[in-house]
Amino acid sequence: MTVTDLVSYEDALASYDPVMGLEVHVELGTKTKMFCGCSTELKQDANSQTCPVCLGLPGALPVVNEIGVESAIKIGLALNCEIAEWCRFARKNYFYPDMPKNFQTSQYDEPIAYNGYLDVQLEDGEIFRVQIERAHMEEDTGKSTHVGGATGRIQGASHSLLDYNRAGIPLIEIVTKPIEGAGARAPEVAKAYVAELRELIKALGVSEARMEMGQMRCDVNLSLRPNGTETFGTRSETKNVNSLRSVERAARFEIQRHAAVLSSGGTIVQETRHFHEEDGSTTAGRIKDNAEDYRYFPEPDLVPVAPAREWVEELRGGLPELPRLRRNRLKEEWGVSEHDMQSILNAGAVDLIVATTDAGAPSDQARKWWMGELARNANETGRGLDELPITPVQVARVAELVTAGDLNDKLARQVIEGVLAGEGDPDTVVEKRGLKVVSDEGALGTAVDEAIAANAAIADKIRGGKVAAAGALVGAVMKATRGQADAARVRELILEKLGVEG
Amino acid sequence: MTDNSTIIKLTAAEIAAKIASGELTAVEVTEAHLARIDAVDEKVHAFLHIDREGALAQARAVDAKKAAGEKLGPLAGVPLALKDIFTTEGMPTTVGSKILEGWIPPYDATLTKKLKAADVVILGKTNMDEFAMGSSTENSAYGPTGNPWDLTRIPGGSGGGSSAALASYEAALAIGTDTGGSIRQPAAVTGTVGVKPTYGGVSRYGMVAFSSSLDQGGPCARTVLDAALLHEVIAGHDPMDSTSIDAPVPPVVEAARNGSVDGMRIGVVKQFAGEGYQAGVVQRFNESVELLKSLGATIVELDCPSFDLALSAYYLIAPSECSSNLARFDAMRYGLRVGDDGTRSAEDVTALTREAGFGDEVKRRVILGTYALSSGYYDAYYGSAQKVRTLITQDFEKAFEQVDVIVSPTTPTTAFPIGERADDPMAMYLADLCTIPTNLAGNSAMSLPCGLAPEDGLPVGLQIIAPAMKDDRLYKVGAAVEAAFVEKWGHPLLEEAPSL
């Protein structure tokens, strides 16, 4: 990798003002592809999910997936966009072997949604409004695997394998207007925007938006202009930045790189850049000095999309609460700090906690288990919280047992461990492992009597008024009952039997 | 027992009736046509592929149905020649191009499925101008087709194989596609009947695209009724084709059985005349207009100024769409692959394959279309052409406020000699002068024989144009004209063709 000269971030911002444009591609979670009935399921055998349409065989014709259009409209509405009353698909003509028709069915000057905005909340709570240029529908390409070379790139490969399973999967491309005025916070805004967009897409239920699975991909376009000037500088387009952290790093790196080039008297070349996860750097890709000519024209094989206004309003009426507002509401309801809320969010625990409280658990209990024991387990086993084999209903049941005094914390942890190990639901685990708190007063009384008899000296101290010494007897009882007694009740019994006020 | 020479001259309606009544078996009918193909197709070259086994198997299935007492469809057992532009599962589909040589489609076009479901016997695939680009079938990569009236002349194009198969009695029915006149002009120059249905009337799914917004499959036959029977089988909404019209098929068969022009207002467009029209064509056309009057129609002269721009608009829109439609022929997935010796890049192999696989006319149009869509030229070329298209549609709308149908010559001349216009694309393009406006507007039109040009004794076609989804009017008028001419001539025109 070539070493790129950078100036420090602070120096860059002292002289220049960054302007960003973010292009995000979201793979919709429709069951079938955008223009045919093939399944969209991931990780299937190569070319097993194809048909004449998505293979672009001669004679085959596309038909629009209604759910794809509906998803696009929902996204548009959630982004406060206007929804086109009439729009067409367009052909974007260019050659690539993994694109079956050698044109991509996309939208050009008639996007389904346009002129919107998304308010994003920065870490200090400040709201930044990102203007949305458009959101349009298109189809994904197939996948090329280059074989025989050292790098997996096409250079040096002996041949390439083509898998068209992904070809035709519906994509929504969301393009921002130039993001100005973010200053030093530009990288943070970029990250917050993509994060907010991801939450929004998930809340809408139109995609799982897993960046690590390529279901959501981001291009970061960035330029600098001298502070106090209006005209945009030449931009670079960093492609396929596929994690939130990377979005922030890519923007930061490009600010430093552009500043280094500009302040040494150089000029920025309009080009695509590759982002490198290892060190957060970018390297040059294709030069885009002449705007590529995609020879767009309206797709004659598809009739225009003209969503009825009643339908659009119906979809608007069904939109879920926006993630940012919901987050702020939950933060209030739960009484947690911004920092804790951020942790809950980062852990992907919001929906699980909500589901657990919906199942009857107090919110502090729900948070405690998901952010404690369960987060630890997820972390250790490299799984997402939602991938753990325990349901919010089961967590709520554990919390219920604790509240009722049937379990103490220690026992509750063992119950959860049992559920995670596949031993059954919480009640089954309690049953099988015999974990219930001993609350049989007779059995407990006997254990207390035995402890007093075995520790006569301590018992005398307590009778003499040293109530604090009761702890030792409680410990002995707990040990005798293998931790299954309610410690508070044990203490009460000891004091009672020794005739001392607690 | 009816002999083969009688069987092949039967109309599709007659064949179906005789099979239904048990007078003929579908196998006898198929064998008679296969024998005719064996006898004459070496000279005519209407077929690119003959599916002897498949045809006989289908015929046997029809006979089995009949034997089992099942009800047969109106075209069951009728042999048909299918233009080699519709995909046929397990049967080659070349579109007249080297680039698809050897390709066996894994799926049937909707139209192919409908034919099979109707128990129509598909004899094979017919020759055509490569990718349907041409008016003479000379652009086929597999050699030209002869016009059965005079084998040294063109049978029209692009569907010259289909029209020639009908005119030579190799098939009772045929399927064509019409982007700028490729059904009607071949029908005109071979003395047969051809219909371009309303755009969206017949599914395009599985029809290899030339120009998506103009292409339309349709029926070819020797009589108006046969065309209607076939029209009804292949038409109708197809959920696989987004541009297919979701409405009932116009009552074409009923119209064909009840031909009449009495009380109709029929338009004659003044733009469909003038320089370039052969005298004999004009003469037969004028006689047709007189005939319509005598049958009770009122003739209205129409002015459709935008029609003068139709050819120019067409030669921007069709090449533009084709430049994109043909981009998929890249040697990656199917068809021809040239130069893949393990050292060349994908781009080089694609370039070599296209160089070898596409003919001159295809290359000419791809280049033209690529240019017309290019940034900076789009508005001037493609954009302007679309505006002209709107004007033409408006001219038709205004015309159809005054008249029920429009008539014109189908094509300005009779069949020209093979080779005459091969090196003069502009002269070739003029063959579609009268047919193109209909494609641009998306409405329906028919060509049927209206006599022989006195100067060369070759067939002249009369074009009837109807509004969109009023295809039945074509058949109502066509049937009346056909009946009147047959009465006047004493026999169908095709009987005047020399025997092969």
UniProtKB/TrEMBL annotation, chain A:
Q: Which InterPro entries match?
A: Asn/Gln-tRNA_amidoTrfase_suB/E, Asn/Gln-tRNA_Trfase_suB/E_cat, Asn/Gln_amidotransferase, Asn/Gln_tRNA_amidoTrase-B-like, GatB, GatB_Yqey_C_2, Gln-tRNA_amidoTrfase_suB_CS, Gln_synth/guanido_kin_cat_dom
**What enzyme category does the UniProt record give?**
ligase
Q: Where is the Asn/Gln amidotransferase domain?
A: 351-498
Look up the domain of life of the source.
Bacteria
Write out the entry's keywords from A to Z.
ATP-binding, Ligase, Nucleotide-binding, Protein biosynthesis, Transferase
- Keyword ATP-binding appears in the UniProt entry: yes
Q: EC annotation?
A: 6.3.5.-
Family, per entry: Belongs to the GatB/GatE family. GatB subfamily.
Biological role: Allows the formation of correctly charged Asn-tRNA(Asn) or Gln-tRNA(Gln) through the transamidation of misacylated Asp-tRNA(Asn) or Glu-tRNA(Gln) in organisms which lack either or both of asparaginyl-tRNA or glutaminyl-tRNA synthetases. The reaction takes place in the presence of glutamine and ATP through an activated phospho-Asp-tRNA(Asn) or phospho-Glu-tRNA(Gln).
Q: PANTHER family of this UniProt entry?
A: GLUTAMYL-TRNA GLN AMIDOTRANSFERASE SUBUNIT B MITOCHONDRIAL AND PROKARYOTIC PET112-RELATED, GLUTAMYL-TRNA(GLN) AMIDOTRANSFERASE SUBUNIT B, MITOCHONDRIAL
Q: What is this protein called?
A: Aspartyl/glutamyl-tRNA(Asn/Gln) amidotransferase subunit B
What is the source species? Streptomyces atratus
The gene designation is gatB
